[in-house]
Write a structure and sequence with these properties.
The protein has about 200 residues and is an all-alpha fold. The chain has helices at about 5-15, 25-45, 55-90, 95-125, 130-140, 145-170, 175-195. It starts with 6 loop residues before the first helix and ends with a helix.
């Protein structure tokens, strides 16, 4: 698992000539970072004098962020695996018409999968803004800047993942699937850019 690597190991792998992990995995990592920062602000609020009215809400937020963070870390591998599948499909034999047809179908199916994984990452990251705002407004004021960084990380997660959706969607031949993916990606990008 990519999440099991040290930071140095991950960065070394990322900077290599291997196409995976790539931007989608980094987008997922940004999402996990946003979750952890939100959880941090919540943790620094729970039990602190003057924030008694927020303790229960902060505990709930921290628990939820811990769960979502693990999902983002898993998505780092899911994104890498989905694109590796595309690469593998391009290596399929293409000597006969049947092989060519099977190869093209496999490439298309894998490419759709490689677009859906980062779309899910982006959609999940887009839910983090509300939690960040809540910890900034109701949490420990000394950690408000960490909540602001969480917003930046969440936005990077959304936009980074959406770039991966778009580039994969461009290779999809089914016009309906392609249009649907691009519509979702463009709508979410606009929403995030307007509000955050």
């Amino acid at each position: 698992m990519l999440a099991e690597l040290t930071i140095k190991e991950f960065m070394s792998t990322l900077s290599s000539d291997s196409p995976v992990p790539g931007g989608g995995s980094v987008a997922a990592l940004c999402g996990a970072g946003a979750c952890s920062l939100i959880a941090m602000v919540a943790s620094l609020t729970i039990g602190k004098k003057g924030y008694e009215d927020s303790w229960e809400e902060m505990a709930s937020i921290k628990s939820h962020m811990d769960k979502i963070s693990r999902e983002f870390l898993n998505s780092m591998d899911e994104d890498a695996a989905s694109y590796q599948k595309v690469i593998s499909c391009f290596q399929m034999p293409k000597l006969t018409d049947e092989e060519k047809e099977n190869r093209n179908a496999a490439i298309q199916a894998a490419t759709i999968g490689a677009a859906l994984v980062p779309l899910a990452i982006a959609e999940k990251a887009s839910t983090l803004f509300d939690y960040a705002r809540r910890v900034i407004l109701k949490g420990n004021k000394n950690a408000a800047s960490d909540g602001e960084v969480a917003i930046i990380m969440a936005k990077s997660s959304v936009l980074g993942a959406l770039y991966n959706v778009k580039i994969n969607a461009e290779s999809i031949k089914d016009p309906k699937i392609k249009a649907d993916l691009l519509f979702k990606a463009n709508s979410l990008e606009q929403e995030v850019n307007v509000h955050y």
